[in-house]
Amino acid sequence: MGPRTRPETKKKIPQQTERAAWKILSDRVEAQMAMIELSQIEITEVFLSYLYDHRTDKTFFEKLKVKGFGNLLEYNE
After folding, report:
1. CA distances from 26 to 29, 30, 56 (A)
2. Chain centroid to CA 58: how far?
3. Residues near 61 by Cβ (< 8 Å), separated by ≥ 6?
4. Do the domain assignments include residue 65?
5. 60 and 37 co-located in one domain
6. pTM of this prediction?
7. What is the mean pLDDT of the chain?
8. Sign (positive/negative) of CA torsion 66, 62, 74, 38?
9. Which H helix or E strand runs over 58?
């Protein structure tokens, strides 16, 4: 923002940033759900793949799958 930016504009920027972030997250979840519906990916892989264990170098999903719990949260219509 330059020196000529209006104070009311400065107040709107954090709100607009928050709205944009939520829209990006919503689009991401929508895309992931479409992949689940098309059987391109498992629901557990989508939502549990973000939990990462640095000690074992594996995601929570990978650990579940190895132990036979891969379909723990199976998607059913």
Report:
1. 5, 6, 31
2. 18
3. 42, 44, 45, 48, 49, 51, 70
4. yes
5. no
6. 0.55
7. 82
8. negative
9. strand 58-59
